[in-house]
Amino acid sequence: MAKSKDRDRDRESTKGELLDKVVKIKRCAAVVKGGRRFSFAAMVVVGDGKGRVGWGYGKANEVPPAVEKAVKGGTQSLVGVSLVEGTIPHTAIGTYGAAQVILIPASPGTGVIAGSAVRAVCEAVGIHDILTKSFGSNNPVSLVKATIAALSQMRTRNDVERLRGVSLS
User: Fold this and answer.
1) What is the pLDDT of residue 100?
2) What is the DSSP secondary-structure string of the chain?
3) So what's the pLDDT on residue 13?
């Protein structure tokens, strides 16, 4: 049982140009007259590797339909992220519920230093070098949402100059 869960969690596929990564698969049991009826919930991160990322959550009686529903939800919730040469332009803190994630830009060659849930988001968005630290809850669903909240705060120097109407150089 544990082996099949690991295989499903590590599943990666590409639909068109989008990359999806399964973050978590949960099994839920409803007790009925004849015994237990199982259902599955899947948390998926979807991204294009070029600055867009989204998350989806799907529930079904089997794992593949749950993943398909989650991927569909993830493609509908894509948000743009400003990236600079494979990393982020500045440090950001994202929170969701009791989960808090700090994202720190890193020099080229560092790689993605992150836990599994945060790593899935960073790889889906196309970040190659980043340092991260999570505090509080270690729930993968909350960590994914906190990471996307932190990434949506990203502004490059050009974005700030355009918004303020000034030159920062």
Assistant:
1) 97
2) -HHHHHHHHT-EEEETTEEEEEEEEEEEEEEETTEEEEEEEEEEEEE-SSSEEEEEEEEESSHHHHHHHHHHHHHHT-EE---BTTB-SS-EEEEETTEEEEEEE--TT--EE--HHHHHHHHHHT--SEEEEEEE---HHHHHHHHHHHHTT---HHHHHHHHTS---
3) 55
